[in-house]
Amino acid sequence: MATKSNKYKPTGKKMLMAKCLADPEFQGTITELCITVGVARSTFYDWIGDTDFRAYVDELIDKYTDSELSRVWKALMKLIDKGDIQAIKLYFELKGKYKDTLGRNSAKTEDQSNLLQLLSSTGEDINTDDLPEVE
C-alpha cells in the first residue's frame, strides 16, 4: 500500500485506465474501456485487483466529486425553491434534522407521538381518540 512518502501514481496506460474509470463522461463497457486504453481484459482485472490502483482511482473520483459539490448543492436548492418534497427531505436528512422511521416496529408509536406533539403545540384541546391511525 502507498504511503505519504511513497505516493502511488500510475503511469502510461495504467494512468489512462484510472482517468477513464474516474471520468463520469466515459460510459463504455469494460471491453470498450480496455480497447480505449489498449490493454487486454485480463490486464484490467489485474489492475483492479491492485489495492494501490483502486485507491488511486478512488482518489481521482473524490477529487472530481469534491469539485462538483457546489453545483450539486445549488441544484438541490433550486429544487427546494420549487417545492420538491424529496429535495426538502434530502436537505433535512443531510443536515441531520430528519429521520425516516418508516419500516421500524416503533414507527407507528413514534409517528403518533410526533403528531400529538405537533397538535398540542397549537393550543387546541386534543382528543387522542380522534387521532388517525398511523400505518
Q: How would you summarize what this structure contains?
A:
The chain has 135 residues and is mainly alpha-helical. The protein has six helices and no strands.
- Mean pLDDT across the residues is 79
Number of domains: 2
Poorly predicted ranges: none
Quick one: overall form? Answer: elongated
> What is the helix tally?
6
Q: How many strands, what sense, and barrel or not for the largest sheet?
A: none
Rounded to an integer in angstroms, the radius of gyration calculated over CA atoms is: 25 Å
Structural class: mainly alpha
Order of helices and strands: HHHHHH
What is the strand content? under 5%
Distance between the termini: 51 Å
Strand element count: 0
The portion of residues assigned to helices is: 55-70%
What would your notes on this structure say?
The protein is an all-alpha fold. It folds into 2 domains: 68 residues; 41 residues, no CATH class. It is 61% helix and 0% strand. The chain has 6 helices and no strands. Helix 1 runs parallel beside helix 4.
